[in-house]
Amino acid sequence: MIENEKIYPACQTIDRTVVVGGLTKSQLFQKMQQHSIMMNELGKKLFADDRFTTTDKTYSLKTVELTVRDLGLPEGATTSQLFTRAMQLDLALCPLELGPYLRLEYRDQPEGYLEKPARKYQAPYGSITIASGTLTDDVEFPKGFYLRRINDVLWLRGYVADDKYVWGPDDHFVFIK
């Protein structure tokens, strides 16, 4: 670890309070459509799965957005390493349903990829991954959601990653404080 790097909680973070719950999956999907939020095929597959559930009662979550580097992992980390380190820093994984609610609330996300090269098999520039548990160990099934703005269109996207995938030090994640 580089001595001068500041790690959580001494680093710069983006804190949000997000109200979650109170809608059925159908109502939540309709609300995303009303706000012109797009989903990729993996996001649709994850959202449609019976194991992805929503709660009927509303509750508030205090979230923190930070980078893999901010967790003290300047070389990057696998998902398991990343989540273990976050828990050591008293951060918790998000419920999967946070993804759609955060997407609905965070509509002024900046474009992240402008004038940057496309990255294949890596988290896209400007994306924010919701740190959540997975529904299955199946490597072909989406592991979670990430938020992105592409050409001024808001997206809730699903992603796949196996247990060997290494997240880059500048990849952004959202955890529960």
What does this structure look like?
With 177 residues, this protein is of the alpha+beta class. The protein has one domain (14-176). It is built from four helices and nine strands. It has helices at residues 25-34, 41-48, 79-88, 98-105; strands at residues 14-20, 38-39, 59-67, 77-78, 128-130, 144-150, 153-159, 166-167, 172-176. The strands form two sheets. Strands 1-3-9-5-6-7-2 form a seven-stranded mixed beta sheet. The two termini are 23 Å apart. 31% of the residues are buried. The model has no long low-confidence stretch (mean pLDDT 93).
Key attributes of the depicted protein:
177 residues; Helicase; two-stranded antiparallel sheet; 7-stranded mixed β-sheet; 4 helices
Which regions contain 5 or more consecutive residues with pLDDT less than 50? none
Instruction: State the secondary-structure class.
Output: alpha+beta
Gap between N and C termini, in Å? Answer: 23 Å
Strand content is: 15-25%
Largest sheet strand order: 1-3-9-5-6-7-2
Helicity range: 10-25%
SSE map:
Layout: E1 14-20, H1 25-34, E2 38-39, H2 41-48, E3 59-67, E4 77-78, H3 79-88, H4 98-105, E5 128-130, E6 144-150, E7 153-159, E8 166-167, E9 172-176
Helix pairs in contact: 1-4
